[in-house]
UniProtKB/TrEMBL annotation:
The keyword Protease applies. InterPro entries: P-loop_NTPase. GO terms for biological process: proteolysis. Keywords: ATP-binding, Hydrolase, Nucleotide-binding, Protease. It comes from Sinosporangium album. One of its GO terms (molecular function) is ATP binding. This is ATP-dependent Clp protease ATP-binding subunit ClpC.
Length: 89
């Protein structure tokens, strides 16, 4: 939103630079709207979590199908995530 505001102000250096690059505030706004998150799957019938089903994805199912990318070299981040999850529980 900040970039849109900067681009919309014709007196700003940012707007001048964007104009020189051929980019308008409207184009930025359209790109932001187009990149907004969209629901990725439909809720499963009889599910107890239809909203989660609609907006999320079942990582357990994805892993079972072998479609989950391996986590390599992220041991510190994984350990930190596990610690935070344990603290929240």
């Amino acid at each position: 939103m900040l970039l849109i505001a900067l681009a919309a102000n014709p007196a700003s250096d940012a707007a001048r630079m964007l104009r020189n690059a051929g980019v308008s505030a409207n184009e930025i706004q359209e790109a932001v709207i187009a990149s907004a998150p969209r629901p990725c799957s439909a809720a499963r019938p009889g599910s107890g979590t239809p909203t989660l089903d609609w907006y999320g994805r079942d990582l357990t199912e994805v892993a079972r199908e072998g479609r989950l990318d391996p986590v390599v070299g992220r041991e510190d981040e994984i350990e930190q995530s596990l610690r935070r999850a344990a603290e929240a529980a």
